[in-house]
Amino acid sequence: MYSAEHEQRFDNDAPAATEQLGLLSEILNRETFSILGEEVRVGHGWRCWDVGAGEGSVSRWLAARVGTSGHVVASDLKPQHVPSHPRIEAIRHDLTSDPWPEPEFDLIHARLLLMHLADKEAIAVKLAAHLRPGGALVLTDWYSGHADEGLIKSPVDDYTERIFQEYHDGVLKLAGQTGMDFDWAARTPDVLFAAGHRDLTVRDYQAPGEGGTPTARLARLHSYMLEPFLLSQTNLTAADLDVIRQTLLDAKFEMVTNHTRTTVVRVPK
Predict the structure, then answer these.
(1) Which of 22, 87, 134, 192 lies at a CB distance of 3.0 to 4.6 Å from 269, suitable for a disulfide?
(2) How far apart are CA 183 and CA 152, in angstroms?
(3) How many beta carbons lie within 10 A of that of residue 239, not counting itself?
(4) Does residue 4 lie within any of the structural domains?
(5) Pairing state between β 88-92 and 71-76
(6) Using alpha carbons only, what angle is made at residue 1 by residues 117 and 62, rounded to the nearest 5 degrees?
């Protein structure tokens, strides 16, 4: 979870939270670890802040990377999924209202976080100011700016195409009601550039979408987690949802997945 101001349907206390957070890690960790390891080059002795740490897989990776002289602060509104580790300090923290950890971090990482917050622009700038000279800020969020790709890559019948469109539209409707901003990831570099940061890089990533892959399994899980909303606020029926769930496990099916866009900011030494 991210902040108390954001009414979450995907709560860390939910029965499906462990599975959901695990699937997100399966989808995104390889790209995240490539950025942190090969581009940012997190090293021995670094002090890191993993904001909105979720189930703590990035915090665990950072703890191994920084070695015995390093330290990782893993913050979340509900941090119970973060594992115990001698170099991980897991804290219950609301980014929008609680005092922040002591500044001077070598790395601040936030994944799928700022897109949920109303004052994301100010928070992004404040996070960059919380770095030591030479430190790096890594912000990753979902990005749906590739609408021309459609929803489904594999051949499907009209019925399947219709119910997947209905499911997609329903999820977007709920996202809008809860304040999710799928355009934020495209604006992030401009916000930080306007704040005076010049050392900026941007990376785009799109996970595989074949049936049975982590992305398809996450969409299937969400169909259960959001079922009351989908049945009451869309034209989908319970039978339609059963077909969607079966299709998402079919290896011959391939959907188009959302991209993530990551902005890396380095502050001058």
Answers:
(1) 134
(2) 21
(3) 9
(4) no
(5) parallel
(6) 100
Residues 151/163, Cβ–Cβ less than 8 Å: no
Is 251 in contact with 211 (CB distance < 8 Å)? yes
126-155 pLDDT tens trace: 999 999 999 999 999 999 876 667 899 999
For residue 164, CA distances in Å to 150, 157, 170, 247 come to 11, 11, 10, 10
Strands 131-143, 259-266: parallel, antiparallel or unpaired by DSSP? antiparallel
User: Which CATH number is 211's domain given?
Assistant: 3.40.50.150
Q: Which domain holds residue 78?
A: 17-266
Q: How far apart are CA 56 and CA 88, in angstroms?
A: 9
Q: Contact, 184 vs 141, CB < 8 A?
A: yes
Residue 7 lies in a domain: no
Would 3 be classed as within a structural domain?
no
How confident is the model at residue 102, as a pLDDT? 87
Give residue-wise pLDDT tens across range 10-36.
666 677 888 999 999 999 999 999 999
Burial of 132 (0-12, 13-18, 19+ CB in 10 A): middle
Query: Cβ atoms within 10 A of the Cβ of 250, count?
Result: 13
Start-to-end Cα distance in the chain: 33
As a whole number of angstroms, the distance between CA 124 and CA 137 comes to 9
62 close to 49: Cβ distance less than 8 angstroms: no
User: Is residue 43 helix, strand or coil?
Assistant: coil
Q: Are 159 and 247 in contact (CB under 8 A)?
A: no
